[in-house]
Amino acid sequence: MRNLVSAAFLLALGLLLAAEAGVRLFLPHGVSGRFSYGYDLQAGFVEQGNGQVKLVRAGGRRFYPQTFSYQRPPDCWRILVIGDSVPRGPNLTASYAGRLQEELSLRNIRSEVINMAIPGYGARRCQLVLRQGLKYEPNLIILHLNDSNEFEDEREYRRSLEFQGWHVKHWPMKVFIFARAYEIKTEKILWRLIPEKIRLQSAVNDADAEVRASQDQQQQRLWGDRVREVTKATVEMARNRDVPLILVTQGTIAQNNGATWNIDDGGLDELARSLVGPGVYLLSMKQVFSRLTGIQSYFSDGAHLTRKGHEVMAQALADLISSRLAEQVALQGRAGR
Q1: Reduced to 3 DSSP states, what percent helix, strand and coil does the chain have, rounded to the nearest 5?
Q2: Please, which residues have CB within 8 angstroms of residue 125's CB and are 6 or more apart in sequence?
Q3: Contact 243, 281 (CB under 8 A)
Q4: What would the DSSP string read from start to end of 233-299?
Q5: What is the pLDDT of residues 99-158, one digit of tens each?
Q6: In 114-205, where does DSSP find H-type helix?
Q7: Contact by Cβ (8 Å): 112, 78
Q8: Bridge partners (DSSP) listed for residue 247
């Protein structure tokens, strides 16, 4: 019996080691930064030996797969779009990032617009993406401001801390297989197979927790202060590198007494205006869409845009770039060569 147990143990251990080695050998990007949940600076950025950079879905960053050169192409504007699910869009070409490249082309401006927007990203994780993006010589950064993702930023930050440190209790989490199993349980992907009574005993219900946080005025004030402070630091980061920045402020729509539709900026316009200055510009979704009739047709829900909405944003950005930023970006490009 002892030999049988020993053999079973050794077999299980061997399979575990083989699985771990296989994942790290054949899926290295899936392991790299996987349990940092977006708080690893380089996660999702794969710098290849041929001078190319690939954006991949890794490390809590669900980038649209894209490839670009490490160094900015000559006579081409490199524009980075950073934000959450709103600028990410329904797909790469339909997003306002994709449409912007086409709009600039119509204005005889050769550009390379890279969509680095990631669903659920708040101020802190967007700042990390921008910091990494500055390595790739952008001529312009478009930062989409939205204060509705701070719950996700906070939750993922706490999750990332669970996988740090070398205390004995953290040792199992250093094994990818164990860590992924733990994550699956936390995410409740497989919890449909577990009786509800057991789920309720040990579950961390993100939906309920988010609702409670949205009703906690003190928590909302703290997150609002953090958005302001982090965004201010992010703007300074771009300024220090002499990279022009457009702040796109989120607007949400709602019906007024079940009749007319109104769009609200949630105070983001005021925040952005306080940061506007040399090299920093504002494009307000509220201002863009409030001039249009039937604004509900440009939104797929209260916050996200339809394809037509993305086209409108791309046109507004192209107008701003060609009228106010063209000379500055051109000078920056010549200085960089």
Answers
A1: 55, 20, 30
A2: 38, 39, 118, 153, 156
A3: no
A4: HHHHHHHHTT--EEEEEP-EEEEETTTEEEEE-TTHHHHHHHH-BTTEEEEEHHHHHHTSS-GGGGB
A5: 999 999 999 999 999 999 999 999 999 999 999 999 999 999 999 999 999 999 998 888
A6: 123-133, 150-162, 176-187, 196-202
A7: yes
A8: 143, 282
Q: What is the DSSP letter of 49?
A: T
Convert the pLDDT of each residue in 201-244 to its tens digit.
444 455 556 556 666 788 888 889 999 999 999 999 999 999 99
- Distance, in Å, from the CA atom of 8 to the CA atom of 14, rounded to the nearest integer, reads 10
Q: Which two tokens stand for residue 40?
A: 């690893």
- Given strand 45-47, what is the order of strands in its sheet? 45-47, 52-58, 61-69
Cα 199–Cα 33–Cα 204 angle in degrees, nearest 5: 15
Q: Is the Cβ–Cβ distance between 67 and 52 less than 8 Å?
A: yes
**Cβ 220 vs Cβ 210: under 8 Å:** no
Q: Which residues fall within 8 angstroms of residue 141, CB to CB, at 6 or more apart? A: 79, 80, 82, 130, 133, 134, 238, 243, 244, 245, 246
Per-residue pLDDT averaged across 37-61, rounded? 90
Measured CA angle at 188 (ends 183, 189), to 5 deg: 90
Question: By the 8 A CB rule, do 57 and 119 touch?
Answer: no
Name which of 46-50, 198-202, 205-209, 311-315 the model is least confident about. 198-202
Global confidence as pTM: 0.80
Tokens of 166: 């070398």
